[in-house]
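ERR on first pass: missing label on line 2. Operator R.T. fixed the label and resubmitted. Corrected input:
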Amino acid sequence: MAYVATKGGEQAIDQSERFYHALKGNVTLEAVQTVLETMPYLVDRVLGEGSLYAPELAALALVQSGGDLYEAVLLLRAYRSTQPRIAYAQPITTERMTTIRRISAAFKDIPGGQILGPSLDYSHRILRTDVLEGGAVEPTPAVDLADQPAPRSYPLVADWERENRLLVQIPRANNPTNPSDIPDVTRDPITMPAPRAHRLQALARAETGGVLALGYAGMRGYGFTHPTVNELRLAYADLEMVHPISGEPFGVGRFRMSQAEIISSGGGGGVGYKLGYTATMGWNEVKLIAGATLDMEMNQAEPHPAHTEDFVLYHTESVEASGFCIHFKLPHYVTFASGMDSIRKVIQAEYPASKEGYTSPEPSESTKMVTA
Amino acid sequence: MVAPHYTDSEALTHDTFIALMNALAFPGRVFTLPTASTDESFRAIADTLLDIETSYYTPDAEWMPYLERSGSHAQTPDQAAYWFVPNRLDLDLVAQASVGTMLNPQDASTLILGCQLSAGQTTVWRGPGIQSTIAVQLAGIPEQFWKLRQQMIHYPMGWDAFFVEGNRVIGLPRTTLVQE
Amino acid sequence: MSLKELAHPASDYSYAFLDAYAKRELRRRILKGIALPGAQIPYASRELPIARGWGTGGLQATLSLISPHDTVKVIDQGADDSVNAANLRRFITRMSDAKTTTDTLQATLIQSRHRIPEEILTEKQVLILQVPDPEPLRRVQSDMAKSREMHADRDYGQMWLVLYEQLVRFGDYVQGASYPVMVHNRYIMSPSPVPRWDNPKLHQAQHLTILSAGREKRLYAVPPYTNVYPLEFDDVPFRVENQRGWVCVRTGIQNKFMNEIPQADGSSIFEVSDTGYVSKLIQRDANPATGTTYFDDEGSFYHDGYLK
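pass 2 clean. output:
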């Protein structure tokens, strides 16, 4: 039975979808809550790539798709597409983010200190198989309370570097005063060279694996330099808006976000240190470091072909990349037939013979083909 | 699942767009807008094309409040994406229309011009969308309009226009060659 | 007047799924596409509940044109009943309440992946083609910014070089589907991966064709009655696929584009790819009627002298 000639194609689709869902658990509120509570980092990855801060919806997307990351991101993006733009929030500055993790690899200690925050960096990666045996699970001991509450935020390492004239001067940006004038990658068709806003937006919502692969290549030497983490932060940012009538600012809510700066003196572009930057909604350290590295790579006068802006931004787009990849499953038989017609002509010209001008080559001729 | 509602506003903008699309695809032919007067037509076209993501120009101050309603912002004639000129088109004004650039010819202006169809001077049009030629009558546009257009348009650079009277519209893309 | 009368029924989506901003932007771009035959117009390209690469570009164009009064035909590789076409058709009707048909002659909108129907389309119809790669210069320039400049400068020498090299190495053009064309004597355009058989149908057509690439975020158009010529050297003419002698097992006709179906014994059987046309032929004694086709029963194209 042909894949295409299936009459009742709609019935086949319906059954196929049911089969998918039959092989996984039901989509329930409980399942969504479990994912939200137990897998916040996965949720953060999905909402970051989905470009929509909605942890519950991201958890729902994960449950609904059975944990297929690309399907989950697509679900969220499709939903995002339908949401109206009501207004723009106030810009968020680093000083006003409630920062709970802040480290710098550039210095042993920095003003405000190295704050480890929540991290598995120094944990032992040992699977707790006792959980599977149904044994009593010893909860992780709670964090010990400090004598003093931590400060809300910490001074920027980059500010110290600026004061010490270590950073290469970059021209002052002409930031638009009207937020609706900020180029928006979800509204404007993308063209290269991309405005800085487009680049940072694209990195913020880029596919983590893609960014990692390209960033890693840069770190290994395909790029121009060895990056140092100038500062990495995980934070809760307060979303503030201005009341349309009274003009008074008010808080809308708080969301998880993270950012990283990479510093390097290598490559062209002036004497001193340069910074690469990436921020994203949710906490996703791998993406931040790789992204910030790529931000710097893309600024090189002649980056490696895999680190041009064109290459990086187009190929780290989760929905586009995964969608196009799986589209190859669609029937392509007409295109194939057209190509086969061309190839047949060529073969016929090369090896004229009997049956419809087409014949399998003799062993000696196949050797000829290889060396030709 | 019930299909989303086909509201009156959806119907208006849909039918207006289809008329504009056909007018540009078949230059010189008259297409009908879902309106009852020239004013209504201009409003319908504004509703269909304008919003916060684009810009307009109009020499007619009375029209500005309606055009601003869409969220679109006013621009100078040479920068505006859409011109709304309900009457008395000035030749000096036309000379300021944007023809786009070689890299971005689609950035050129679109001129929406009120005039009289089926009256006045007859010109003969040919080009994409026209099977051989079509004779078009237009009145209420400056006498030297066609000469100026010929000077300004160097395909692919050039502006595109719609002529509107009542509920009737004729399209003139930059690809059309006009003989007086 | 009651609130119930004033308010529309609650709905999660705007008509045809796309919100007003999305529709307006698409419509603005489509108009410019018509004014610039064959030129790629960048557009925002909304995400849809269908994966990228699966027809979101064509879908966006269809959704910005559709109304409940339309009749839409959706095909993939020429087949209405292809799983993917069925899925797209399901989405479109769910969101628009438009009627559907498999009969080309009844459709007002035809959304197609990689084929143009065999029956001649008229002025009242719009053809929407799904495009994976809008850039015909990709084979000579992978950087989109640079290829865009090449189009601006009409810098097409490298394309001719590619064709020339094919002639030297293989004795013929080896481009199968997506054969590049010159539109209105200015822009080189990819007709989308339609077979060469379908390329001529774009030339001086009665209908408007909109081509849209959702993932790559470019759309372009070929207005009616516009010149569309394949890239070819004067002394080596462009040719459509050689399917002479192929007979359709389902209808017995020849000279319409066919699918080749390999058989277990190494032979092939053939069937006409345009399934809507096939169903009408099979029901020839009953309605509905078939229309005039671009290629007649002997395989001659309806515009004399176009194919050499």
